Amino acid sequence: xxxxxxxxxxxxxxxxxxxxxxxxxxxxxxxxxxxxxxxxxxxxxxxxxxxxxxxxxxxxxxxxxxxxxxxxxxxxxxxxxxxxxxxxxxxxxxxxxxxxxxxxxxxxxxxxxxxxxxxxxxxxxxxxxxxxxxxxxxxxxxxxxxxxxxxxxxxxxxxxxxxxxxxxxxxxxxxxxxxxxxxxxxxxxxxxxxxxxxxxxxxxxxxxxxxxxxxxxxxxxxxxxxxxxxxxxxxxxxxxxxxxxxxxxxxxxxxxxxxxxxxxxxxxxxxxxxxxxxxxxxxxxxxxxxxxxxxxxxxxxxxxxxxxxxxxxxxxxxxxxxxxxxxxxxxxxxxxxxxxxxxxxxxxxxxxxxxxxxxxxxxxxxxxxxxxxxxxxxxxxxxxxxxxxxxxxxxxxxxxxxxxxxxxxxxxxx
Length: 414
Known about the structure:
The protein is mainly beta. The chain has 8 helices and 28 strands. The chain folds into 2 domains: 5-181, Acid Proteases (Cathepsin D, subunit A, domain 1), CATH 2.40.70.10; 230-412, Beta Barrel (Cathepsin D, subunit A, domain 1), CATH 2.40.70. It is globular. It starts with a strand and ends with a strand.
């Protein structure tokens, strides 16, 4: 009988996104892995895990090369054990697909040790290098230990992907799917978190002190999240997942306070491979809006209160770095809630609210600062990335069992 487990998580290691503590292999190598619904590979830094000492390891002929919005890596794929949790609230499984970084781009994981991708198999692409290994007379014919010729080990992760694309492509079963298929947990997971930025408090603190602050902690629930009714209150709002490339949803509109709805743009023809105009992504520290929503939102906020214009000036474009303004300039009582209308399951649409405390993170990125949690990525398709600021507003359940592609449920937090 699959059980349900509650795993403590923190946002401190990965500077905003949330990590869970895991143990890998027979030696129990410890790693803090980012929980990311926007990717599917389980990857551990080579510096944190020594495959050569792992008695549970089975080498494969696969290699992976994955790039994110920021960062990326490549390396061999092995099969080994992965353990999460403590006591009754723990899960352990052998023969899990684990990629080990051979090369990674700077800042790929922050101070975390890798990523646990929670999306579906289409994002867990790997390449079978059997032909290359046999042609070059490698023995054993496996990617671990890493044996590729020096000239193939390009410093650029993106360049190395060109080499891999010469070889047969496969889709590996992601970690959470493996757990579900082996009957370890049910096919649902959930997040209960409070922040999308590290809560720095009003004075400088050590990383250890920040990790122990309740606002920088949360829970990752695997199995049957709705059994844990102390983690939420009221009824769930159901959003339909329309495609399982990511957790794809359809964004209808957004609204600033009681203002007129701003219709969400549709995907351009050249971007239809992104499937829909919205995704729910726990690996994103912001809510990313297309220009067609971001600019009207900023206009409505400035019209709502002309004093907002100066405060919002630093946020007209994304710099790649979290920007803070003096906290004394932000009175949350004066700011309106922002609402998103998204295609529903039991009703045509559901409305989700982001309160000012969620889209303005106080004491971030430094003590006595506040940071605005909406941004725009130039060149990104007409697709809203519903990141942690929205997820932190609710007890958020990813139910992959209901309907054809699944549903995402949002309930108020206790």
